[in-house]
UniProtKB/TrEMBL annotation:
Protein name (record): Exodeoxyribonuclease III
GO terms classed as biological process: DNA repair
Family annotation (Pfam families): Exo_endo_phos
Record carries keyword Metal-binding: yes
Keyword Chaperone carried by entry: no
Active site: Y106, D147, H248
PANTHER family membership: EXODEOXYRIBONUCLEASE III
Species: Sphingobium amiense
Length: 275
DNA sequence: ATGACATGTCGTACATGA
């Protein structure tokens, strides 16, 4: 089973690119971010015509997340993160699909830093960490997929020293990501490509894609049960080179039906985090 | 250090993004 995440940067403006990618790459389940469309303007029919059912949480102009599936019903379990009833951004949607509980997320960008937007990013991250702990505690096969707006390490940025003051690479943001992973999540792409320069975003400026001046900010995190089923994780890099494309590329994992590897022993820090 | 480019909006400039 192939599960992908893709920040489309406008689901309607990007519809031809999205549909072409769905046909060519054939993911079974997809998390989309940055729909930039109100609830009633999601292109449900075009997506359904390709064999996908969908749930989505739209918002006028900004944000917006969706989950698509061509492998069975989508059982929505929540939209919006708990912990702040005043947070009206459409940034989180969660569903059980084909035996996997999937949280699709679009973490706040946080720039400029310092400022209220950066504070919001860190608060949102804290709420995600709290909720993620509950998900892990369930023992179910769980995945968190989306645009985390964080480069976890130096290896994930084309030029780390240029990004130190940016909200996407700030020590506080990286620390929050590390805290999340410390609960016991597996960063699928990094785990199967250790030490490799591998990016998921290239900005539109200065020929960034051609120069491979990229960032790795779109992540697929697997709970221990799912990590045992991980067989592949890749970036559909070519999509970033298409006409009228998003500044992000799709990222996906292939999961086997059964465990493929022996579970590694939990680290002491993980045991502590789960208590 | 700046700005390059792209999105959507009751546009024709602005807010937002990363």
């Amino acid at each position: 089973m192939k599960i992908a995440t893709y920040n489309v940067n406008g689901v309607n403006g990007r519809l031809p690119v999205l549909l072409r990618w769905l046909e060519e790459s054939g993911p079974d389940i997809v998390c989309l971010q940055e729909l930039k469309a109100p609830q009633e303007k999601f292109p449900e029919k075009a997506i359904r015509d390709l064999g996908y059912e969908a749930i989505w949480h739209g918002q006028k102009s900004w944000n917006g997340v969706a989950i698509l599936s061509r492998v069975g019903e989508i059982h929505e379990t929540r939209r919006g993160l708990p912990g702040d009833p005043d947070d009206l951004h459409s940034r989180y949607i969660e569903a059980a699909v084909a035996g996997v509980l999937i949280g699709g997320l679009y973490l706040p960008n946080g720039n400029p830093k310092p400022g209220s937007k950066f504070d919001y990013k860190l608060r949102w991250f804290d709420r995600l960490i709290d909720h993620a702990a509950e998900l892990l505690g369930s023992g179910l096969p769980v995945m968190l997929a989306g645009d985390f707006n964080v480069m976890p390490t130096d290896l994930d940025v084309y030029k780390p020293e240029r990004w130190l003051d940016d909200a996407l690479f700030a020590p506080e943001a990286r620390a929050a990501y590390a805290r999340l992973l410390g609960q016991g999540w597996t960063d699928a792409l990094r785990t199967l490509h250790p030490g490799e320069k591998i990016y998921t975003f290239w900005d539109y400026f200065r020929n960034a894609y051609a120069r491979n001046a990229g960032l790795r900010i779109d992540h697929l995190l697997l709970s221990p049960v799912l990590a045992d089923r991980l067989v592949a994780a890749e970036v559909d890099r070519d999509v970033r080179g298409w006409e009228k494309t998003s500044d992000h590329a799709p990222v996906w994992v292939e999961l086997a039906d059964k465990p493929q590897r022996r579970r590694r022993p939990a680290a002491a820090s993980e045991v502590g985090a789960s208590l």
